[in-house]
Amino acid sequence: MAKKNFASMDSLKSVEIVINEANSALENKKRTILESPLSEVVAGALGVGVGGAGSFAALFFGGKVVGLSAAGITSALAAAGKLVGGGMAAGVGVIAAPIVILGGGGVLLASHLKKKKLTEAKDRLLKLAVEKQHAIAVALKQEVDASKERADYLNGLNILLQGAIKDLQADIAK
Questions:
Q1: CA dist., res. 163 & res. 14, Å (int)
Q2: What's the angle, vertex CA 160, arms to CA 162 and CA 39, rounded to 5?
Q3: Which residue of 10, 35, 136, 150 has the fewest C-beta atoms within 10 A of its own C-beta?
Q4: 79 in Cβ contact with 63 (< 8 Å)
Q5: Tens of pLDDT along 62-73?
Q6: What CA–CA distances, in Å, run from 26 to 83, 96, 124, 146?
Q7: Which long-range contacts (CB under 8 A, 24 or more apart) does 45-48 make?
Q8: Lowest mean pLDDT among 80-89, 113-122, 126-135, 139-148
Q9: Who contacts 25 (Cβ-Cβ below 8 Å, separation ≥6)?
Q10: Of 138, 134, 140, 120, whose CA–CA distance to 165 is shortest?
């Protein structure tokens, strides 16, 4: 699988910062690269829980001797082992299986939800970046009498936004 440009929510913060800076530039027509906290960047652009509880209960109540004493545990393990035609050693596998299965399922579910949230964030930021890039392009055309610093600032933001858009589109397509 190809490497993602933005593999986590934290990695998207750089896109949010550029979008926010573009917003500041659009709101304040006197803002230049000198006032920007991104001046160097802009200038550079220019140049297991449930499974464990179930197994604990199986250990506690499963055998002939109820409790967590040595006799209770060995009795529970032997009883669980009989379910698969084995003894106490097989019982360890029977009792551990829910932890492994539910824990693995929990990890898969959490991973899926995290990936879905990341994809939604990328979609949202892509739309914002496209909007801001378009607005910056319009501002460049309208502000023909702007100072060189202002024009450089807007051009730098335009380049940064184009890069963010390209990277976000590539991630979403993967």
A1: 12
A2: 160
A3: 10
A4: yes
A5: 444 434 444 455
A6: 70, 59, 20, 13
A7: 45/156, 45/157, 45/159, 45/160, 45/163, 46/152, 46/155, 46/156, 46/159, 48/99, 48/102, 48/103, 48/106
A8: 80-89
A9: 31, 36, 136, 139, 153, 154, 157
A10: 134
CB-CB neighbours of 62 under 10 Å? 21
Enter the tokens of residue 150: 């202002």
Cβ atoms within 10 Å of 25's Cβ, excluding its own:
26
CA distance 41 to 130: 19
Return the closest-CA partner of residue 25 out of 115, 114, 141, 157.
157
What tokens does 79 get? 């009883």
CA–CA distance, 160 with 15 (Å, rounded to integer): 9
